[in-house]
Amino acid sequence: MTAPRTACLVALLCSAVVLAQAPAPEPLPPPPPMPPTDFAPPPLPAEEAVPAPPPAQPPRFGLHLEAGVPDGIGASIVVSPLGFLRLEAGWLNNGVGNGGRAGVTLVAFATAFVRPLFGVDAGAVLGGLGEWLPDLIPDQTVRNVVRGATVKFVNAQVGFELGSRNVALTVHLGGAYVDVALSQQALVLNPGAASSSSVSGVMLKAFLPSARLGLLVAFG
């Protein structure tokens, strides 16, 4: 009974020695990482900033002082709703009487120091209102003709202005259509005679050269 037990013990010892000398098994590699469950879309390209439109400029106002022929002297209020457009209206005196004038002027290169101009205006002067020219005429016949005359006119002129946007010198040259009415004027044809001749309702119409020099003062 001892021999079989001894043989079994020897077999168990041999198996234990073999197992102890055998290499340990290599560990299993870790599992691959799982893909992310949330998908982030690629970033959108940044939009280019669109510049805001410039704010609308308020209309500019000004005062225009002018003197010329055949218009006389005058002062006008100027309104410029756009950089290239001017509207004018004001008072006028040509020595025979007082009146008014209104017109439109187009301005080229509104931001330049020298700016070309093109303008059209019309007006009328009523004789006998603030007249001073007839008093300077020594000849009685001519003085009677000029006194009380009513003048209507239309101007078309080109020119330029020189200066800043606030203060500028203006020069205009062009032509004028003039309509002069001599109403109830006595023409003394023979001053030494006892009798005189008179005419009434005489109309004089003509195309004349015109010129004006002015000073423009703008505000706003």
Oligomeric state? single chain
Helix segment tally: 2
Give Rg in angstroms. 51 Å
**Percentage of residues assigned to helices:** 10-25%
Low-confidence stretches: 193-199
What's the helix-strand series? HEEEEEHEEE
Shape assignment: rod-shaped
Task: Write structural notes for this entry.
It contains two helices and eight strands. It has helices at 2-21, 140-146; strands at residues 60-69, 72-82, 85-93, 97-107, 114-127, 150-163, 167-182, 202-219. Strands 1-2-3-4-5-6-7-8 form an eight-stranded antiparallel β-barrel. The protein is rod-shaped, with a radius of gyration of 51 Å.
Concise summary:
Helix content is 12%, strand content 47%. With 220 residues, the protein is mainly beta. It has an eight-stranded antiparallel β-barrel.
What's the helix and strand layout?
Layout (H helix, E strand, L loop, with lengths): L1 H20 L38 E10 L2 E11 L2 E9 L3 E11 L6 E14 L12 H7 L3 E14 L3 E16 L19 E18 L1
Antiparallel strand pairs: 1-2, 1-8, 2-3, 3-4, 4-5, 5-6, 6-7, 7-8
Descriptors for this entry?
8-stranded antiparallel barrel; rod-shaped; mainly beta; 220 residues
